[in-house]
Amino acid sequence: MNAVDTAPAAARPRSLVSLLALYRLLLRTQITLSRLLGIAALGSLAVVIGLFIRWDENPNQAAADAVVSYGLGILVPFATLWLGTSVVGDLVEDRLLVYLWLKPVPRWQLPAAAMLATISAVVPLTALPLAASAFAAGAADIAWPAFLAASLAALAYSGVFVAAGLWFRRAIWWGLAFILIWENVAAYVVDGLARFTVIGWASSVLGMAPDIEDELEAGSAAMALVVLPAIAIAGWLIATWRYRRADVD
Amino acid sequence: MTSEPRIAAENVSKWFGALVAVSDVSFDVGPGVTALLGPNGAGKSTMFRMLCGLARPSKGTVRVLGRDPRTDTGVSRLIGLAPQQEGVFEPLTAREFVALSAKLHGLPDPWGAAGAALERVHLDPSDTRRLPTYSKGMRQRAKVAQAIVHDPPVLVLDEPLTGLDPRQRMDMVALFRGLGSEGRCVIVSSHVLHEVERLGSRVLVMSQGRLAAAGDFRELRALMDDRPMRVRVRTDRPRELAGSLLAAGTVVGVRLDGADVLELDTADARALSHALAPVAREQHARLFEVQPLDADLEGVFRYLVQR
Q1: pLDDT value at position A178?
Q2: How many C-beta neighbours within 10 Å does residue A248 have?
């Protein structure tokens, strides 16, 4: 008997089946309870801030400012960094990637599943509290734009940080520097640089609400709806390229 | 053996900066069990990573069933790998772990296939405990199960016997031999000589990144038995014992160390092992300790490399 001739040929799995299997695996293995509780605690702080803003003379602008400075400047990027870099980065560090790499699955699927798993946790735990904070501030007009801005920012950051997790060892430190220096200092200090940042475009989405002044002025809200997913796609393509070429330990 | 190579490595080298992990290694592996033997750090795992396409050779070529495992993702359908690392997906049960492999291989009934693979390595598919609660031996078997779940014609098993108890080793060796006898190419790495002996297989020996020897295990065993060896013996009559062994020609040199310790140099370790007890009995000498001084695997491989 010859095993080559007789072995039942395992077919290439249908894309959706393998993508779903990877997504569920990453959700179960990497999105841990402690991480979720940590992000939920940060998210609940947004609601508390909203309650304090309630007494501001212009609650809409104050709520929008809080969404930008705390929500888009701290909550969303740090939450996405925490999960996004670890979702694949931990597999690399724990030398578990070998179990996924040596499978007849298109290489684009693991980064895609990692981004989906990251977004699945980050959006409910950050975008919803930010929308809730707008309601708490009595600025209901801001709620939907805040939710959309946070969701799109999470999408863009997930592409960046999943790629970073595949690219760098201890990517979380690289990501921290990126958030603090590029997204939170350079975007505000250097004129015109905001259009090269996620926070700049995410804050533009808040322009969908009436009478909101956008300090960063990266571009129009309509343009932001294109740019932020484009950043996510770019991150996903880079992650896929890196994953395809990586030496797996 | 090599008339129908399933795995072919040709002048393969792999270096990481200045560190050369594998140096100019060539071999063919056909159906049946082949052992890749070598001490820790010999380059076995790096070689396996290249065989599976997980790492790109710095130089040379690797082919699995005639295809490049690095660039041809379809080859992964034909390979089952049980890696050396101990890490596992912590939240998963053994069945979930093996079913994941089955799903990613596109098997129509992943749970059924996972159950069958687990039974084949003597693990209970209905066990609901998570993998980290398993003993090392059980985790090893789960890793082998995920490697065989899709019934691949080529199996690459990196130190699969580590952590198994003697009974489990015996069962696992029988499984590997069975898989080999079905016409599969099974390549198993080990740094333990007697494990390889049980596999009764063709052997590739790696040391310091190089292929030190290749061939039938019995030929290798004979080579190792022929090498010069030093044995330490503690006895209550060292001078009498030494005299008799020298007279019999079993040893070529003797050194007395203290009142009761002998260091014997022999060119034929097997002859010495057969002669020592009868000579001691003849001399009314009691043997308290017999210890080969350079029988560690590193020494064996050094000898093979230097030949």
Answers
A1: 95
A2: 20
The string over B7-39, giving b where at least 16 C-beta atoms fall within 10 Å of a residue's C-beta and e elsewhere, is bbbeebbbeeeeebbbbebebbbbbbbbbbbbb
Show the tokens assigned to B230.
């030093």
Sheet holding B154-158, edge to edge: B79-82, B154-158, B185-190, B32-37, B202-207, B210-216
Can you give the pLDDT at residue A44?
A: 95
Residues B257 and B111 in one domain: no
A65-114 pLDDT, tens digit each: 999 999 999 999 999 999 999 999 889 989 999 999 999 999 999 999 99
> What residue type is assigned to position B223 of the chain?
L
Contact B190, B37 (CB under 8 A): yes
Contact B76 A102 (CB under 8 A): yes
In this prediction the pTM is 0.82
Q: Which two tokens stand for residue B278?
A: 């009868």
| B168 and B263 together in one domain | no
Identify the CATH number of the domain in which residue B280 sits.
3.30.70.260
- Residue at B77 is within a domain: yes
How many residues in chain A? 249
User: How many Cβ atoms sit within 10 Å of the Cβ of residue A2?
Assistant: 12
Which pLDDT score, from 0 to 100, does residue B68 have?
94
Q: Which residues pair with B33 in a beta bridge?
A: B186
**pLDDT of B266 above 50:** yes
ipTM: 0.85
Residues of A in contact with B107 (CB under 8 A): 10
Are B53 and B75 spatial neighbours (Cβ–Cβ below 8 Å)? Answer: yes
List CB contacts (< 8 A) between B104 and chain A: 13, 18, 21-22, 100, 103-105
The verdict on A106 touching B (C-beta cutoff 8 Å) is yes
Higher pLDDT, A14 or B126: B126
Tokens 């560090």 belong to: A93
A-B contacts (CB, under 8 Å): 108
pLDDT at B257: 86
* Residue B299 forms part of a structural domain: no
Closest CA to B207 of B15, B33, B47: B47
| B69-90 average pLDDT score | 91
Residues B21 and B62 in one domain: yes
Average confidence (pLDDT) over B211-219? 81
Whole-angstrom Cα distance, residue B223 to residue B230? 16
| B1 domain residue, yes or no | no
Distance CA B176, CA B162 (A): 14
Q: Which residues of chain A have pLDDT under 50?
A: 1-9
- Chain A's closest residue to B51, CA to CA, is A102
Of A10, A96, A247, which has the smallest distance from its Cβ to B77's Cβ?
A: A10
User: At residue B298, does pLDDT exceed 60?
Assistant: no
Do B135 and B238 share a domain, yes or no?
A: no
Residue with tokens 């772990």: B97
